[in-house]
Write a structure and sequence with these properties.
Layout (H helix, E strand, L loop, with lengths): L1 E5 L3 H13 L3 E5 L2 H10 L4 E5 L7 H10 L6 E5 L4 H10 L3 E4 L4 H14 L8 E3 L2 E4 L4 E4 L2 E3 L3 H12 L7 H8 L10 H14 L7 E4 L3 E4 L7
Parallel strand pairs: 1-2, 1-3, 3-4, 4-5
Antiparallel strand pairs: 6-7, 7-8, 8-9, 10-11
Helix pairs in contact: 6-8
Length: about 230
């Protein structure tokens, strides 16, 4: 079992290497993001342990570019940050697991073995509705070939609508699926984000993809409907 460890803290990298070798792993170490990326692309690894804060190429950039190149090797990210947005960013970009420093080697080993048992999963296909495309693996949205810049919440609402295309969904369904489970605000916040999406995915392209079904909710379709 081959593991690539990309970690710029030399002492930590060596500690992890020694521990994994003792458990029967073959380990390759890189101490900066640029070398780590090239090794990840060129090597045949069963898993990658990847620090976020690196010299050279940033850990997030490495994940994004690996997934863009269809390198699906399972990635366990390491970070001294424990904010929920840091975890969300890592998973959105294509990481498979996340471990916060300082961590137990026993936990690291268990997480790695779990990733290896699952293997490199087939990534979700690109969702397409007409000329609108959403790539879950790359966290990328395009319309007619043009990349669209969406906020994480806008992306979440659009993905929900696209996965249920041609189906009317209610505001409460969108809130339950896209907002935090503890959100207890007004469901009309959905209207705000539908407005944001229309300005980004429809108006510049003279489309009307998101239809308001009065008294019920919203429907996304290729043909597009009026309000």
């Amino acid at each position: 079992m081959r593991v690539l460890v990309v970690e710029d803290e030399v002492r930590l990298a060596e500690t992890v290497r020694r521990g994994l070798v003792a458990e029967g792993f073959v380990v390759e170490i890189e101490h900066n993001g640029d070398d780590g990326f090239h090794s990840a692309v060129a090597g045949d690894f069963d898993a990658i342990v990847l620090d976020i804060m690196l010299q050279g190429k940033h850990g997030y950039d490495i994940v994004r570019e690996l997934r863009a190149q269809k390198v699906w090797t399972p990635i366990l990210m390491l970070s001294a940050k424990d904010g929920e947005y840091d975890l969300a960013d890592a998973f959105d970009l294509g990481a498979d697991d996340y471990l916060i420093k300082p961590f137990s080697f026993v936990v690291l080993l268990a997480r790695l073995r779990a990733l290896m048992r699952r293997g490199a999963p087939e990534r979700p296909p690109v969702l397409t509705i007409g000329d609108l495309a959403l790539d879950p693996a790359r966290h990328r949205v395009t319309r007619a070939g043009s990349a669209l810049a969406l906020t994480p919440r806008e992306y979440g609402v659009l993905e929900f609508l696209m996965r249920r295309s041609e189906t009317v969904v209610t505001k409460s369904e969108i809130v339950r699926s896209v907002w935090d489970a503890n959100y207890d605000g007004d469901e009309n916040i959905v209207e705000v984000y539908i407005g944001y999406l229309r300005k980004k995915i429809d108006l510049p392209f003279e489309h009307r993809s998101i239809e308001t079904v009065r008294g019920v909710g919203y429907r996304l379709s290729a043909g597009g409907g009026g309000d």
